[in-house]
Design goal:
By secondary structure, the chain is of the alpha/beta class. The chain contains 11 helices and 14 strands. The strands form 2 sheets. A 12-stranded mixed beta sheet has the order 9-10-11-8-7-6-5-4-3-12-13-14. Strands 1-2 form a two-stranded antiparallel ribbon. Bound molecules: S-adenosylmethionine and iron/sulfur cluster (2 copies).
Length: 363
Amino acid sequence: MAAMGKTVIPIAASRGALPIPEARRDAGATPVDALGRALRDLRISVTDRCNFRCTYCMPKESFGMDHEFLPHAELLSFEEIVRMARVFHALGTAKIRLTGGEPLLRRGIERLVGMLREALPQVDLTLTTNGSALKAKARALEAAGLDRITVSLDSLDDATFRAMNDVDFPVARVLEAIDEAAAAGLAPIKVNMVVKRGVNDRHVVEMARHFRGSGHIVRFIEFMDVGSTNGWRMDDVIPSAEIVRRIDAHFPLEPVEPGYRGEVAERWRYVDGAGEIGVISSVTQAFCSDCTRARLSTDGRLYTCLFAQQGYDLKGLLRTGADDGALEQAVRGIWQQRTDRYSEIRTAETARARKVEMSYIGG
Ligand code: SAM
Ligand code: SF4
Ligand code: SF4
């Protein structure tokens, strides 16, 4: 959306935050929302910047050279991130994923991983990356205490991948990074492929073939209507059921029971024992009823849904001296009144609504 040559993105930072609701008394430590879902996972966006311009996430027309990212003072510091992570952990959050934007662009990310590991030795700590800077950082991340890593890779066809990341980044460098991460001990690696009709869907089987038998798990993700800039249309979505059918025709598959309640990916394994794939069907088979995930934006706002329009300003509380008890009560109150189920009630109209961008809220 361009105005007078300036890029204006409707991220929540430019609008008011939601008032923080008061917490009700709760029998257990872990807050449960209005639809009976416990708070279990936290995604933390550590930067809204990225060196890629994936057409489905940060299209160049909206995230151009003059796009204004958050100023450094607005970002949660590492100390503030660790403090929020502790608060969530005290409320029962067992899994933390660092994301963005591109999290490896945040200077000193391995130091943040080390700080989180030291503060929360038991937490399951993971990170999602586009892989561009992973080769150089994989060993340091593992040494700092990262448990696992997810690497996004939308095609093995170099021309298609370069066009999708829209900065001409080659496939080979991401594959090298995956090998390096595995050698560093971050295996098994999850490989995320967003599938868009007519763009990379003809490469689905090739992706499955490449990673079969490697121990890594490819997860095929339906193209989603996150944010308001990616020009989403239902016609561009390849339903996961079709992806499974296409792969099954070459390499027979059978379903795998979910590992835990709230697992986002539906799991399938190769009948011949060559490993597993996952499909994430946010559009065609919504999984809101099991959604236990909160998102902390780069500037410290809490979002209770990937498709939210506004968040709650926790950084404001942090920076005005709230103690941990007050922060816990704030998160508890926010979670208790949560009613989000966007994917279950998606319509053409909601898809067009102004929502926060994924790069800001954390994918
Ligand atoms: N930059 C990192 C990366 O790409 O892995 C982390 C952030 S990115 C927003 C997290 C995940 O969201 C990536 O796997 C990306 O492919 C996925 N994603 C982004 N936009 C999407 C969309 N419109 N539909 C489905 N998945 C999307
Ligand atoms: Fe960057 Fe990840 Fe979004 Fe691609 S999907 S533009 S790599 S944040
Ligand atoms: Fe969770 Fe919102 Fe996605 Fe539903 S639409 S699964 S509530 S993030």
